[in-house]
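A reminder from the course coordinator: this example appears on the midterm review sheet, so study it carefully.

Given structure:
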């Protein structure tokens, strides 16, 4: 598989600074491992503050030329980047499966999804309209311009090695910003391959830079720089809070997509087949490793037994294996720490009275494979209810009334995605409006798309990505008053 990627010239292992592929200045490298096999698939440059500082300088000087192009010129380059990603879909998906573990089918899906943000914002670049405001004095004219914020620092996670980058870089480049990206150290290869295609597409040297290595050092450099005007981050709530605090000193704009604790509420009046299919997809996508994955499946008493047995059956049909194999629907977890976290949550739940209905242990394939798991009778004193498990574990939580379900769903500091299953239209409105969440799926388990706003409330984040709203995060308003006319 790696041969195919290499043959396409997409195996990049150095950082990208000012349009040049560069080693870490001290020559250090870090290993990228295939989580399905343990094989070291590449050694990439392990960078720190010096390289980051140069990347920022390069992004800063390029900002003046890139932001001066017309929207149409930037749009064309982005469009070309999109097309190159699509025409290298296979190689990018292979690379993603090799370094991240997700099944090829999901990897191919992510390439298309990732590319869609570039296409969407290439189009949106031309629609960044300003305003003319009726004046309060007759000899004045009041105007509002929208201008790019400047250099953007983008820090991204390993669970969507491409899409979490394009969702930030797409709108940033579209409106004239330049970017320094720090991908996850677990999945730098997809990011570097995508950056290579950006160069090929004619995105100018310095507009998109990629550095990886020592995360706190790189993050620290981005934070302390007065030239970096915006931090955009997807990852854990703990790191997000650090970045927000660290942005205070230079008063940067901040967008954060942090952890979730998604409730998936199945009411007595749900279509059971739709509910099973939707909650299965919402839970087990990427082996449960997404911030919108159903973390708690709340099931109303009247349907609990029926749902539980049908759900267990559906989960049994999932096939665990190496993502490169055609039949695989569940890849490995990203690393040993992820498996240990799952084990800790399972032990906590069983010690407090939950029952394992399926799975509940490491998979016989070894490595970081974990059995798709269903846990019954989960309650609000368990880690499985309180925190994001980020693994293939579906906790079932029984509830009595609609009111109880809403209360349980909102009983958390997180507020990213929620799902409800009901055939009642009034109930779907009532519950959707009562949920303290940024996204709600009604009778649907997979809802993300480039055309709709994605983002959380409470401690799940700040700002929105995707959609016409997503570009505002990279723009400043400027008010111009023309007087004495
Ligand atoms: P996850 O649990 O999804 O790995 P993290 O928040 O640890 O979430 O990682 C998301 C991204 O944040 C990664 O690119 C990681 O390297 C980066 N990161 C982790 N710690 C820091 C830090 N102190 N400063 C800047 N970035 C960091």
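Designed residues:
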């Amino acid at each position: 598989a790696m041969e195919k990627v290499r043959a396409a010239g997409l195996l990049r292992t150095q950082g990208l600074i000012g349009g040049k592929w560069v080693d870490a200045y001290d020559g250090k490298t870090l290993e990228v491992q295939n989580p399905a096999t343990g094989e070291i698939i590449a050694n990439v440059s392990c960078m720190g503050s010096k390289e980051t500082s140069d990347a920022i300088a390069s992004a800063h000087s390029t900002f003046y030329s890139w932001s001066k192009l017309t929207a149409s010129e930037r749009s064309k380059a982005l469009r070309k980047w999109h097309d190159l990603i699509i025409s290298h879909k296979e190689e990018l998906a292979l690379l993603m499966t090799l370094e991240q573990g997700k099944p090829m089918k999901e990897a191919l899906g992510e390439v298309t999804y990732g590319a869609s943000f570039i296409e969407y914002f290439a189009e949106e670049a031309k629609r960044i309209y300003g305003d003319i405001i009726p004046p309060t004095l007759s000899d004045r004219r009041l105007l509002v311009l929208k201008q790019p914020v400047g250099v953007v620092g983008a820090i991204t996670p390993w669970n969507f090695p491409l899409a979490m980058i394009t969702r930030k870089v797409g709108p940033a480049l579209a409106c004239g910003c330049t970017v320094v990206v720090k991908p996850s150290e677990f999945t730098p290869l997809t990011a570097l391959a995508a950056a290579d295609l950006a160069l090929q597409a004619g995105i100018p040297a310095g507009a998109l830079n990629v550095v990886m290595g020592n995360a706190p050092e790189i993050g620290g450099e981005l934070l302390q720089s007065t030239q970096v005007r915006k931090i955009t981050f997807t990852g854990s709530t703990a790191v997000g809070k650090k970045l927000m605090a660290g942005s205070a000193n230079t008063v940067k704009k901040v967008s954060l997509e942090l952890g979730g604790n998604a409730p998936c509420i199945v009411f007595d009046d749900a279509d059971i087949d739709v509910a099973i299919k939707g909650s299965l997809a919402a839970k087990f996508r990427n082996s449960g490793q997404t911030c919108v994955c159903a973390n708690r499946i709340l099931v109303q008493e009247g349907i609990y037994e029926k749902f539980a047995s049908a759900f267990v059956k559906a989960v049994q049909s999932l096939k665990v294996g190496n993502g490169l194999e055609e039949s695989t629907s569940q890849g490995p977890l990203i690393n040993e720490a992820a498996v240990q976290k799952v084990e800790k949550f399972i032990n906590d739940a069983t010690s407090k009275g939950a029952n394992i209905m399926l799975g509940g242990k490491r998979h016989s394939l070894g490595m970081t494979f974990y059995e798709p798991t269903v846990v019954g009778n989960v309650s609000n004193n368990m880690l499985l209810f309180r925190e994001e498990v980020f693994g293939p574990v579906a906790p079932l939580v029984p509830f009595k009334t609609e009111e109880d379900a809403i209360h349980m769903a909102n009983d958390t500091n997180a507020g990213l995605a929620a799902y409800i299953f009901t055939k009642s239209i009034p109930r779907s409105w009532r519950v959707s409006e009562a949920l303290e969440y940024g996204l709600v799926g009604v009778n649907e388990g997979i809802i993300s798309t480039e055309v709709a706003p994605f983002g959380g409330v409470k401690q799940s984040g700040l700002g929105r990505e995707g959609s016409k709203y997503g570009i505002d995060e990279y723009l400043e308003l400027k008010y111009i008053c023309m007087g004495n006319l």
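The first strand starts at residue 15 and ends at 17. The longest helix spans residues 104-124.
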